Every structure is written in C-alpha cells, then in structure tokens.
Amino acid sequence: MERRMSQVEISYEELEQEFLKALADLGSEDLGSERGVVATSQDDHVTARRMRLLSDGLNLYGWTNRCSRKSEQIMANPKVSVVVAYIQIDGVASVKGHPTDEAEFLELIRNKLPHRYENLVKSWSMNSNTVVIEIMPKRIGLWKYADPDAGIEEGIYVLNVAKEEAHRIDFRWQSDTSSATAYWE
After folding, report:
1. Does 149 fall in a domain?
2. Residues 52 and 17: beta-carbon distance below 8 Å
3. How far apart are CA 129 and CA 143, in angstroms?
4. What is the DSSP secondary structure assignment for residue 3, as one 8-state letter?
5. I need a labelling partner for 165 at 20 to 30 A (CA). Which of 36, 90, 114, 181 fits?
C-alpha cells in the first residue's frame, strides 16, 4: 500500500514570526554566516553563488556589479532561489539603483553593519557599476526534525508569502509528492 505525502495547514503568523527571527541577524556583524547561496538562471543556464545578504523583514538585499552574470540573469529572469543556513527562499529579484542612491538600503547597512558602513559607502562611491539586488520572497521552506518535547513534528514547513498560507508537509512515509501542493507552489 502506497502512502501519499500529507499536507497540514498551520498558523501563517507563527511560521512567519519564526522565519523573521531566523533571518533577523542575516548580514549583521554578529553573525558568522552572513552569506547565502543565490541561484539565478537565463536561457536554461542556472548559476549559483555565495552572496552577502541582509534581511529587512522577509525581504533580502545584497549588492553586486551591474555587469555581472548575476545582474544580467536577474534582469532576464527575476525568479531566484536562495539558501541561507537551512532555509530555502524562492522569490523574485530586482536590480535597483546604486547603493548610495537607495536611502532605505543605506539605512539597512547602517543598522546591520555599523562598523563597515563608512568603508562600504566609500567603496561604492568609487564604483558606479555597483547596484542593489532586492529579493522579495514568494515561498520560504525549512526542514525540521521531530522534537516531541518542543512540540515539533518532522517535515518541511512552508510559508507561502504570496498566498499568506503556511503548511507542514510530512515526508516520513511517502515518495509521491504530487498531493502536497504547497511543496510545489
């Protein structure tokens, strides 16, 4: 008898708060792993690379050279996937202006990287090709192992930001993922 994957709706607000807490220190000077892996694609060619990212709520920000493959791929296909620690984020990226022209980004840098702020602004001032990358999440997922004492059931926890829905997907017995729509959205 084949068992199918189960999908259980859970509290959007609670899972959102968990992801907000997990991403809060991303990019700060206190966090050792301030980089994530960002995957972009164009013309059936996928590229992944480590990138310094900062969070502002669930949105992620970084910077790169306007002429980089990353920027060109984002402009051609804004769908991206990011991995930070054990969190996977599928979203839509956009190439913004120069960092010194993006007031909200500068404020984020000032708050998250106060000891590096002046050096970064100075560096960006000397490179007119630097641009801000903004990533707005559509779906955020995290695998959790069971912890009965903490009330955690094993599975993939998925926050569908676009639909404001949250689900836990149970993989323990199943090999067929077709019945768990939250897994594929």
Report:
1. no
2. no
3. 38
4. P
5. 36
Q: Is 180 or 92 the better-scoring residue by pLDDT?
A: 92
Which pLDDT belongs to residue 183?
57
- Asked, for residue 71, whether it belongs to a domain, the answer is yes
Its pTM stands at 0.87
Any domain includes 42: yes
CA 108 from centroid of its chain's CA atoms: 16
In terms of Cβ atoms closer than 10 Å to its own Cβ (0-12, 13-18, 19+), residue 66 is middle
Kindly state the DSSP code that residue 86 receives in the 8-state scheme.
T
Domain range spanning residue 109?
8-138
The pLDDT value given to residue 182: 59
CATH of the domain at 103: 2.30.110.10
> Which residue type does 111 have?
N
Give the mean pLDDT of 167-176.
69
Residue 1: pLDDT band (50, 70, 90) is: very low
Residue 61 in contact with residue 36, Cβ under 8 Å?
no
Residue (of 36, 94, 93, 98) closest to 65 by Cα position: 98
In a domain, 173, yes or no: no
Residue 86 has a pLDDT of 84
Two tokens at 8? 């259980």
